[in-house]
Amino acid sequence: MLSFFKDYKLFAIVFSGISIVIILLIYNTLNVYKPLPIYQPTMVSTQLVDSTLHYKKKYHKIADFSLINQNGDTVTHDTYKNKIYVVDFFFTTCQTICPVMTDHMAEIQKSIMSDTDVMLLSHTVTPEIDTVAQLKRYAIKKGVNDEKWNLVTGDKRQIYELARKSYLAVKDNGDGGPFDMIHTENFMLIDKKRQIRGFYDGTKIEDIDKLLGDIKILKQEQ
Questions:
Q1: How far, CA to CA in Å, does 184 sit from each of 24, 82, 172, 189?
Q2: Count of H helices and E strands in the chain?
Q3: Suppose 92 and one of 138, 168, 196, 222 were both cysteines; which one would form an S-S bond, judging by CB atoms 3.0 to 4.6 Å apart?
Q4: 111-115, Cβ contacts within 8 angstroms, sequence gap of 24 or more
C-alpha cells in the first residue's frame, strides 16, 4: 500500500510538471508577437485613394510635405523624422464628427505626453478658412500642446494630395472642383519609416484604445 502511494506521488509530480509546460506553451502561442500590417493602396477603399494608386501593392510611403502650423511655424516631414505619429483631417468650423475626433486626439495627447517617440498631426481640409490665427484659437480651445501636436494649413492642392495619395484617408467630393475634399473619421498611425500601420475610427473610443495599444506594439518593433 505504501509503495502505491509513493508511485502515485511520483506520477502526480510528473503529471503536474508536464501540465505546467503545456500551459506555458499554449500561453506563449496565444500571445505571440504579431506585427502590425503595412498598409498599401490596394488594401484601402478606392473612395479614399487617388485613382493613380488604385493598383499599387507595395512600397507605399508618406510623401515629403511642407505646411504651416498654429504658431505660424513651418512643419515638414523632417519635423516627424524618426517619429511615430497619428494623423487626421478636420476643419475648425465642422460641427459634426470633428469635435469628437479632436477630443479623442486630445486624449491620445495625454497618453503620449511623456513619450518623445510619438507625435500628432492634424490637417485642415479648408485651408482657405483655417488660417494660422484660426488654428491658434482652435488649438487653445482644445488644449493642444505645441510640442506634441501640430494643426496645419497651407496649399490646398498639397493637403489634398497628402490626404489621397499619402495617407489614403479622405474622399473626393465628387463635384469636379479642384482639390475639394470630404474628410472622414479616419485616424492613421504612421511608423518611423513613413509607412501607414493602422486605420482607426476617430469617433469611437474603443478604436482609440486599440490605437494606443498599437502604438506600444509599434514601439516594440521599431
A1: 43, 27, 11, 15
A2: 5, 9
A3: 138
A4: 111/212, 112/148, 112/215, 113/145, 113/148
Contact (Cβ atoms closer than 8 angstroms) between residue 118 and residue 112: yes
pLDDT digits (tens, 9 = 90+) for 82-114: 999 999 999 999 999 999 999 999 999 999 999
- CB atoms under 10 Å from CB of 45, counted, come to 11
Q: Report the alpha-carbon distance of residue 109 to residue 119 in Å, rounded.
A: 8
Which tens digits make up the pLDDT trace of 148-171?
A: 999 999 999 999 999 999 999 999
pTM of the model: 0.84
Q: By C-alpha distance, which of 94, 91, 93, 63 is closest to 195?
A: 63
Residue 126, SS3?
Answer: coil
